[in-house]
Specification:
heterodimer, A: 190 residues, mainly alpha, Globin-like, 7 helices, 64% helix, B: 436 residues, alpha/beta, Rossmann fold, seven-stranded antiparallel β-sheet, seven-stranded mixed β-sheet, elongated
Amino acid sequence: MLSDTEKTAIRQSWRLVVPIADTAADLFYRRLFELRPDYRELFGIDMASQKRKLLHMLAFTVKSVDFKDSDWRDDVSPDQDLMLVILALGRRHSELYRIPNESYAVVAEALLWTLKFGLGDAFTPEVEAAWTKIYTLLSRTMQMASATVNREAPMPTVAETQAVGENALRQQKEAMGVDEESLMPQEHLS
Amino acid sequence: MKVGVMQGSLKEFDLAEVLQVVGIGRQYTGIELRLSNGVVGTIFVKSGQVVSATANDTAGPNAFFNLFQAADGRFFVFRTETPPDLPEPLGPLHRMLMEVPPPGPRKSEPVQPAVAPLYAYEERELPTQAGVVSPPPNASPSMHSIGASALKAQPASVRQPPVVAAPPHGPDTRIIGIVSPKGGSGKSTISLNLSLSMARRGHSVVLIDTDVNGDILSAINARSRANIGSLDIVYNDAPLDQALLDTVMPKFKILPAVGSKLPDPELMATEQKDRWRKLLHDVSKRADIVLVDTPAGMFGHTRTVCQGCTHVLGVLQAEVIAARSFARFAEALQLLRDNERPKVLGVVLNMLQTRHHASLSVFQEAMQDLPQEWLFDTTIPRHPAFLDSTHQGLPLRHLDDDVPPPVAFLFDNLAAEVAQRLSLQIPALRARPFLL
């Protein structure tokens, strides 16, 4: 559903986020809890795990949308299909974690703020528009899931989603030669 | 085997939303629809491409659009095995959604197959013009079927003007569509000033406006002068003679887009390819050259108009987003049937800002990436005179009769290039001595 231009904007801007991924995750949750302190209780104690999940999901999303229109015939397995993964995620968010629908707008604000902070001048209007569009699509998919998903249908599990996301982020780091040890200190952007 | 993914009511999530969600998936996914107006259909989507669509007895793009005619109904999304012989897609989902006509009144009767007969076009051999390059290689047969299926299914629920036979264009017909994939790239400005310069060269010119939104008469601050427009002729059978507006240039007339009020929006949403073609043909009998200002984008209304043109002139704004979207120019032409595809007269770079690297880079990339013969030597800069021109409601050349802004002369250069590419004969020059 994204144009090639939007895919390029997301891919190129994400390349700038990957080296500071952990810092970006810190910034995101810091901003989210600034906006809505009451959301802190929606998350468990293990925020490190939560941050990894966020990064894995973003990495998986970027990887999933990054294909050429001409490659549309290529197949992917159900556990790597963005629609099915996001529908499953949306269902878990509503039924398991009891995440309120109004939180999607707050998360959007925190995410765009984080990208703007982290990318600086590279956060152009085109990049902002592309990320806004993909986030809107994903959040709408998650909201649709809670209302419409076929509960009998096989959906990607948490473990499967974690695995493909983790794999996506690792591949992206390797492709860019990002060494875990050489990541910028988190104080860099604080 | 069908695996149900989700189902629900279109009252809760409309069809566009459902399709957008399905569009982010890579699997072969179907959306079965049972609409309140009795229409039953299925849309198959894969990787953001609309693979196929059926609505009752119709299939293809119009079936896709017909499924948007009711706001109520049920949807069922399922995934299934990808067929081994996937057809060429109808088009990218995001683009087809942009072309969905606004919903009309809810109908209780099912949509019927088209009643309009196809007009059998004669293969026309366009004259060979110096410097004119054919568009990209011939479209594949499956691409042809897109155009054919689009014709077959017209929503019968929409009141149709009578079908007219569109005659083939003759070898001397010059109907030039001014097109651009992106809005705001200066099509109307180019159309108006180029028409004027062509008329100044001695050719009779009619400028047809087909853009309801950014219309030419608004640019020259003469909206109140229009009684009948091109859309009134196409959709309401209004007389052409009463629609043409004279200008101070004896050989330059303007056919506005609309008159004092808009035609029925429901009618405007219908494709009237043959009627557009007939209008363009009729006008071409009254002028050496017809220029057609089209709406932004290469699909929808612009596509219909282009099918009646003999040539297209692309306007490439020297700006990054415009450059990125300009690939649609060639792609859209490629999707037309061979005998309905206008020739590429050329591409003019507009709003060039030589002091800005990003703008210059568009120029450099155009030089590098576009077929060599497409780009005109004349480029049009971004210049304050254009603002003055719009403010005064005059073409550039008429801003100051004694001392027109220098940028106005660029359109004379462009007109000369156009004339050369069209192999237009130079009107007879008056013999006159130089020395007194």
